[in-house]
Design a protein that fits this description.
The strands form two sheets. A two-stranded antiparallel ribbon has the order 1-2. The chain has a two-stranded antiparallel ribbon with strand order 3-4. The radius of gyration is 16 Å and the shape is elongated. Strand 1 and strand 2 form a beta hairpin. The longest helix has 22 residues. The chain has one domain. Helix content is about 30%, strand content about 20%. The protein has about 70 residues and is an alpha+beta fold.
């Protein structure tokens, strides 16, 4: 049985929708493959906007944790 997917409301296997789009796993908007972030040489299911936002938050957390350690 092929599952119904929330990304496009259609049945399909895998993360690519029948129309060639992908859903970002953070904001849940749909994007073309060239709009998805690349990490360690592989395309991931996160759009560039969310990827950059997440990276900024991680860097801020690391800075904040470093300041608390001193």
């Amino acid at each position: 049985m092929i599952p119904w997917r929330l990304c496009c409301g259609q049945q399909h296997l895998g993360v690519q929708c029948p129309d060639g789009m992908y859903m970002c796993c953070l904001c849940f908007d749909r994007f073309e493959v060239d709009e998805l972030a690349i990490e360690d040489g592989d395309t991931i299911d996160v759009c560039w906007t969310c990827f950059n936002w997440e990276q900024e938050r991680l860097q801020k957390r690391q800075r904040d944790n470093g300041a608390q350690a001193n």
